[in-house]
Write the structure tokens for this entry.
Amino acid sequence: MFADILKNRTIWFWLASGAAVAALVSDIVFIALASGDESFSVITFVFVLLAALVQIAFAVLRRPAFLPAISAACYAVGLGMHLYKGLPVLSDIVNQVTFVGGNAAYAVAFGAIFIACTVVSCITCFAEQNKTPAPSEA
């Protein structure tokens, strides 16, 4: 069964799957490092986790076709919340005033990962991920 899941896949499938795995791993590290830091949010954690799980479900099920769009939307919500919480932390550094506090390195690192996953997920929504139709679609 597992070999059938990986058979006849395009580069877009592998990019989307790689983004899902990267998001899943970084999301686990994200929540492990949270420790009350101002730039961390449970909403970010939940939506990035949900996006990764939806993308993995699409990789296994190969249908319904709208699952990548749901994954991209969840990544976008998680990214938006991360930027909402992380940009004030970066503003403190730019202005040289500690008002919000937080770890800027974490905000930048996780922001970059979440941006990459969101962009890849948005692109793969419009790309064919299978070289041939699924057996039930033929």
